[in-house]
Amino acid sequence: MATIKDVASRAGVSISTVSHVLNHTRRVSEDATQKVLEAVAELNYAPNSVARSLKINSTKTIGMLVTTSANPFFAEVVQGVEAYCFEQGYSLILCNTENQPPRQQHYLRMLMEKRVDGLLVLGTDIDTPLRDMLRIHKNVPQVVLDWGTECDFANVINDNARIGARLAVRHLLEQGHRDIVCITGQLAKPTTQQRLDGVRDALAEQGLTLKDEQVFEGDYESQSGFDAMQRILALTPRPTAVFAFDDPMAIGAICAAWEAGVKVPDDISMIGYDDVEMARFSSPPLTTIRHPKAELGLLAVQQLVSRIRNKELEVESMTVQPELIVRRSVKSLR
């Protein structure tokens, strides 16, 4: 079995140069890099990652706990994370927890046993038991996305959910809508409550209030948007506009309207949240609030790698700002 010394000898470079090429730890000239890669291929060299990790106390691996990778928002965040990990020479271990505590515990234990260099956690369902488990491993650098609350042991990156919801409802009000209903996520979630606060803020600016009967609880999945829309369409009088707290629920609601023979936006207007890729391909293209997903994932993993490389960095929280994206699912009543 070939060794790193054999590769260096075949390529005519030093062992440290081979190491820098394979581990992306320092810039090496294109000529030397090509010679190393050719020698690796010719000798069929495979580095002993276990021995290396023990020697340098680093596995070049990042673990990521995701609420569900099936949700388009989460999937697009993961794309940003994976691209940067590849660029920086890190492997990404993606664990889909489905909000189930036993799976959260199992995957977290597994990631610690594999000695990941850092941990990313994505999702708004971080309950007290999971928070306590993460705190136990606070010696491992962590970044949490879309948590909705502060944290004293991990970097936190949130979107400004309250401002985003205010933008959405302001847009509906500016188009002349006054009879507005909301399809929310689970009401127990901090992010849902923040978006409800944003709805109330925008309505209050016009002297309006949000009544309980204007709130239809969903779960951030398409089916719940479909089901909620069926109940909304049965109301008398029918509201003129619906604000869904994420795009999958908005698209599910549009589908329910289409099946009932109700046209969006001619008969009822719809606005979503997140601006997932499918939003611009829905029928009609969905007006929504852009939550910068790939950028969010990139920012998170950049912060994590910085903390991995400099353990003295203090934890910090930051908020990314949402943006209104106007397409064709909202009708002007003016």
Topology:
Layout: H1 4-11, H2 15-23, H3 30-43, H4 49-56, E1 61-66, H5 72-88, E2 91-96, H6 101-113, E3 118-122, H7 128-136, E4 142-145, E5 155-159, H8 161-174, E6 180-184, H9 190-205, E7 215-217, H10 222-233, E8 241-244, H11 247-259, E9 269-271, E10 288-290, H12 293-309, E11 317-320, E12 323-325
Helix pairs in contact: 1-2, 1-3, 2-3, 5-12, 6-7, 8-9, 10-11
Pfam family, one: LacI
Keywords: DNA-binding, Repressor, Transcription, Transcription regulation
Protein name: HTH lacI-type domain-containing protein
The fraction of residues in strands falls at 15-25%
**What oligomeric state is this?**
single chain
Task: Give the name of the CATH superfamily of the largest domain.
Answer: Response regulator
* CATH topology type of the largest domain: Rossmann fold
Question: What is the end-to-end distance?
Answer: 76 Å
Main sheet properties: 6 strands, parallel
Q: Decide which structural class fits the backbone.
A: alpha/beta
> Low-confidence segments, ≥5 residues, pLDDT <50?
none
Radius of gyration using CA atoms only: 24 Å
Q: How would you describe the shape?
A: elongated
Number of helices: 12
Topology pattern, helix = H, strand = E: HHHHEHEHEHEEHEHEHEHEEHEE
